[in-house]
Write a structure and sequence with these properties.
Distance between the termini: 64 Å
Strand order of the largest sheet: 1-3-2
Structural class: alpha+beta
Strand content: 5-15%
Length: about 80
C-alpha cells in the first residue's frame, strides 16, 4: 500500500486497510461512514474506493484563515479607536 494514491485508482479497501492508511481508528472510520464517507456494502463486508475517499476528504477540507471572517485585525481596531 505504498506509493502515490493516484496509482491505486479503483482499488477497494477494507475498513482495517483504510483506517491504517489514514492513520485513524476503525471506530473513527465507522463514524465517518455514518456521516457520509462513500463506501460499498458487499453483503456484510464494507469496502471503500480509495479515489472516492480522497475526493470526499478533499472536497470537505477546511482551510483556516488568519482571522475569522468579519473579525478586524489589531491594526484595524487601532485605526477605529483613533477616529473622532
Amino acid at each position: 500500500m505504498n506509493g502515490d494514491p493516484s496509482q491505486r485508482t479503483g482499488r477497494l479497501l477494507s475498513e482495517q486497510e483504510l483506517a491504517k492508511l489514514l492513520n485513524i481508528s476503525v471506530r473513527h472510520l465507522m463514524n465517518l461512514r455514518k456521516a457520509g464517507l462513500p463506501h460499498l456494502q458487499l453483503g456484510v463486508s464494507i469496502r471503500y474506493d480509495l479515489q472516492e475517499v480522497f475526493w470526499h476528504i478533499r472536497d470537505r477540507r477546511m482551510i483556516p484563515s488568519r482571522h475569522p471572517q468579519g473579525a478586524a485585525s489589531t491594526a484595524e481596531l487601532r485605526l477605529q479607536e483613533d477616529r473622532p
